[in-house]
Amino acid sequence: MRSLSLLPTLLSLTTLTNAHFLMNYPPSLEGSNIDEDKEPDAPCGAKTPNLSSDTTTTDFHVDGDFIALYAGHPQFNWLYRASVQEVGEGNWTQLYPILQQSGLGDLCSPLVKAPKEWVGKKGVVGVAGVGGDGTLFQCAIVNFVEGTNAKAPSSCTNSTGVTASYTSDASLSKLVGEHVEAPAAPTGTEAPAPTGTKGSKSAGVVVRGGGLAALGAAVVAGVMML
After folding, report:
1. CA 20 to 30 Å from 13, out of 23, 133, 183, 187?
2. Which pLDDT score, from 0 to 100, does residue 147 have?
3. Residue 73 near residue 24, CB atoms below 8 Å
4. pLDDT of residue 186
């Protein structure tokens, strides 16, 4: 009987592990029911956002907010981008240097910034990821608000053994407008691993190839500044 009681949990873990990637914060348009077959569909996977009709939104602070992801492949390159228009080719703005995640599991990036002139506007935050099986997409509808989000969401965790570094990726760079100058990667020495935020998933995202000295404090709400 005990083995039967574990079956739902095991099935849930299998589904999570098999997912290409999950956008946990801001919450994806697809929620936790990701259609993996349509994740390669630009610009947002199975659901295309509609700024006129989509009413479920999350506040995104332009001076710094969180993007929390789950990687179902051992390596991903991530592009964080956003738009305050109905999304299409060329009207995306890059929010952060391209990151390369090594290791399966959770990665949380705090202090992801957006243009200050977007305050008061509704828009889309999109993540594009390259993990060995093409480019994959997910998006969230947000309200851009002023200030910095000082409270990490519960989904903002870093799995043990996951590392991240700043990188370049031509296939991702072409997914933002040519007129947009990508933000520069922070400079400095390698940052120390942070203390954790959530049980066994908590320890240690180390940023290499740039560090975080130029961004100030290395830990925000117990999570590495990525």
Report:
1. 133
2. 97
3. no
4. 55
d(CA 47, CA 217): 37
Whether residue 102 has pLDDT greater than 90 = yes
Strand 21-25 relative to strand 58-61: parallel, antiparallel, unpaired?
unpaired
Q: Is residue 20 very low, low, confident or very high in pLDDT (cuts 50, 70, 90)? A: confident
Listed by start position, the domains of the chain span 2-155+166-179
Question: In whole angstroms, what is the distance from residue 148 CA to residue 132 CA?
Answer: 34
Distance between CA atoms of 168 and 77, rounded to whole angstroms?
9
The CATH architecture one would assign to domain 2-155+166-179 is Sandwich (2.60)
Round to whole Å and give the CA distance between 78 and 209.
15
Q: Give the chain's mean pLDDT.
A: 77
User: In 42-67, which positions are buried (b, 16+ CB within 10 angstroms) versus exposed (e)?
Assistant: ebbbbbbbebeeeeebeebbbebbbb
**What is the band of 92 on the pLDDT scale with cuts at 50, 70, 90?**
very high
Q: Are 115 and 181 in contact (CB under 8 A)?
A: no
